[in-house]
Amino acid sequence: MERSIFGLREVKLASDSADMTFSGYGAVFGNIDSYGDVIEPGAFAATLAEAKASGDWPSMLLQHGGLTAEDNTPIGIWTDLAEDGIGLKVTGKLADTPRGREVYTLLKMEPRPAIKGMSIGYRAAAFEMRTKPEDPRRRLTKLDLFEVSIVTFPANRKANITDVKSGAGLTERDAERALRDAGFSRSEAKAIIASGFKALPQRDADEASVSAALKRLLTTIES
């Protein structure tokens, strides 16, 4: 099994961690990885179709697993895998286990996430070798995907985890934007998200601002 590692670029956070869902890219098309390979659009089409037809989906691992049973125990499940114009778009849900909650906490850290990337484990079922020195080592045209891991050390920074959400689907950035639109400062918005309106001095949490913020939040959730 081969591996291709991609970097973390952005994480959006939710104030409620009830669902521990996230999404991002397990692979990016047209970008040379650390091994000199390029994944071509359509490379995952067959393996994704087979997974969805059989119900036997690629595993979600941490650091590609390891030697022990615990290392190789999945940390969650992938709920959607699809190709788009960028690459392999993945959506997953972390398990409510010590390792799953640990990973979710690492993804939520400020001012930057502690987890640095995503990586795929695959077999190159079809590829084209380079014919010129300046070409990529291989152009991968068909891949059998076995697992997608969350990893610490990325080798390619083009792919990313784009969303870390709660069960409601509202991200922390959405909530912060709504509160900012309602007139709160950035620091006030962050304090409200972390600890509720009680985090503000009483004079700042006036009824009109609170009402406007709640209306904006409800509109965001509904949309």
Structural commentary:
The protein has 223 residues and is of the alpha+beta class. The protein has two domains: 2-165, no CATH class; 172-222, no CATH class. It is 25% helix and 31% strand. It contains five helices and nine strands; from the N terminus they run βββαβββαβββααα. The protein has helices at 45-54, 98-107, 172-181, 186-195, 207-222, and strands spanning 2-7, 21-28, 37-39, 59-62, 76-83, 87-94, 117-129, 138-151, 161-165. The strands form two sheets. Strands 1, 3, 4, 7 and 8 form a five-stranded mixed β-sheet that branches. A four-stranded antiparallel β-sheet has the order 5-6-2-9. A hairpin with an 8-residue loop joins strand 7 (117-129) and strand 8. Helix 3 packs across helix 4 and helix 3 packs across helix 5. The N and C termini lie far apart (42 Å). Residues 8-15 have low confidence and may be disordered.
Element layout with pairings:
Layout: E1 2-7, E2 21-28, E3 37-39, H1 45-54, E4 59-62, E5 76-83, E6 87-94, H2 98-107, E7 117-129, E8 138-151, E9 161-165, H3 172-181, H4 186-195, H5 207-222
Main β-sheet description: 5 strands, mixed
Rounded to an integer, what's the Rg over CA atoms?
20 Å
Structural class: alpha+beta
Order of helices and strands: EEEHEEEHEEEHHH
The helix content is 25-40%
Shape: elongated
Low-confidence stretches: 8-15
Indicate the mean pLDDT.
79
Q: What fraction of the residues are assigned to beta strands by DSSP?
A: 25-35%
Q: How far apart, in Å, are the first and last alpha carbons? A: 42 Å
Q: State the assembly state of the protein chains.
A: single chain
Number of strands: 9
Total discrete domains: 2
Number of helices: 5
